[in-house]
Amino acid sequence: MSCRVKICGITNLEDALQALGAGADALGFVFYDKSPRYVSPDVANQIVSQLPPFVVPVGLFVNAPDDLVEQVSQGSVRWVIQFHGDETPEQCESYGKPYYKALRMKPDVDVLREASNYPSALAILLDAYKPGIPGGTGETFNWNAIPAQLPKPLILAGGLTPDNVATAVNTVKPYAVDVSGGVERSKGLKDPDRVIQFINGAKHGG
């Protein structure tokens, strides 16, 4: 089965539609105001309202206040939420939306134990760990540290680029891959050629 692709850090409609035209399955919107890829709830919901069917918009939050999550998620029934902070299972479930839980691959993390704490998650996203940076590090991690039998579908993130995504998919065999900085021409703006190369690499091995 072909690997799915999420293009994250979308900030404008042009990049969104280009990514979909290249074969993206999901688009990520960052609601973490310290990120250079931050987008406001209003702008994000305007973009989502213009997306075609069968596309999944994913809202990324890091220890966000309830009112921010509600403001975003009430703008469209289509939202899936990606929790990238220290949210408890109860917090993740409290918004009544399908969600992914991101885990950062710290040296001593017990991935199976952490993943099992979120039985209602649609998927578990594994990202590189860098102190003080909750995501978008641009760095890979040791893929061999990923347990073979995760209880949920795996979304692989962290330092993926058009140059390494085919190797990543062949090595890890994730359900999906997630990229942001690896397909940009500048922070928050996508490079169409890199987006096409990345998706081709993820889905067809190059």
From TrEMBL:
InterPro entries reported in the protein's UniProt record: Aldolase_TIM, PRAI_dom, RibuloseP-bd_barrel, TrpF_fam
Domain (N-(5'phosphoribosyl) anthranilate isomerase (PRAI)): residue spans on this chain: 5-200
Pathway linked to the protein: Amino-acid biosynthesis; L-tryptophan biosynthesis; L-tryptophan from chorismate: step 3/5
MF (Gene Ontology): phosphoribosylanthranilate isomerase activity
EC numbers: 5.3.1.24
EC class of the enzyme, as a word: isomerase
A Pfam family that the UniProt record links to this protein: PRAI
Superkingdom classification of source: Bacteria
Alphabetized UniProt keyword annotations: Amino-acid biosynthesis, Aromatic amino acid biosynthesis, Isomerase, Tryptophan biosynthesis
Reaction(s) catalysed (UniProt annotation): N-(5-phospho-beta-D-ribosyl)anthranilate = 1-(2-carboxyphenylamino)-1-deoxy-D-ribulose 5-phosphate
Gene3D superfamilies the record matches: Aldolase class I
CDD domains (alphabetical): PRAI
SUPFAM superfamilies membership: Ribulose-phoshate binding barrel (SSF51366)
Full protein name: N-(5'-phosphoribosyl)anthranilate isomerase
Species assigned in the record: Rhodanobacter aciditrophus
